[in-house]
Design a protein that fits this description.
alpha+beta, four-stranded antiparallel sheet, two-stranded antiparallel sheet, 3 helices, 23% strand
Length: 174
């Protein structure tokens, strides 16, 4: 169960500042068989301005690969979604080709699993919270590459550099 805290326990003013969020111990019954080590948990608002609901998400390192993943892990209201892990390298492969373009949440459909249409939108809400994406003026549901995309990308990839998990670099956006 995700711990409930203040509105943004790991984030400062919706900025991707995960340096202050404590590392989270693996909460699975059999941590030895789960290759995903949760490094951070955070909350973010949904995309719709009509709701005050929030999503919970996790960032984890796959111990075998050393790659960094994220997933939506909770929803404070209704809406089905996939809890499957999404590899950030796959996200970057899509987003790197979208510089200068606007995009809908469905842009990441090829890399998210599950049949729910909410999964893409919820995942893009997470990517906005991390400042990889930002909204397009005049349309809350369209995205563009975030101003701090490159620095956040570097910080996220660095989190996977130590596959043993002995060090976890901070993810801070100025």
């Amino acid at each position: 169960m995700t711990p409930k805290a203040s509105a943004k326990p790991a984030l400062k003013s919706s900025k991707a500042d995960l340096s202050k969020a404590p590392a989270v111990p693996n909460q699975n019954d059999d941590a030895k068989t789960d290759p995903y080590r949760v490094l951070r948990q955070a909350t973010c608002p949904k995309l719709s301005p009509k709701t005050d609901s929030h999503l919970q998400y996790e960032i984890a390192r796959h111990d075998g690969e050393g790659a960094i993943y994220f997933r939506v892990s909770g929803n404070s209201s209704s809406g089905l979604y996939s809890k499957a892990w999404v590899r950030f390298e796959a996200v970057f492969a899509i987003l790197d080709k979208q510089r200068g373009n606007t995009m809908k949440s469905a842009i990441i459909k090829p890399i998210v699993s599950g049949g729910s249409s909410n999964t893409c939108g919820f995942s893009c809400a997470v990517l906005r919270d991390l400042e990889l994406l930002e909204s397009v003026d005049g349309n809350q549901f369209l995205h563009q590459i975030g101003r701090d995309y490159d620095s956040v990308k570097v910080a996220l990839l660095a989190m996977g550099a130590d596959a043993k998990g002995e060090k976890t670099p901070s993810l801070q956006v100025s």
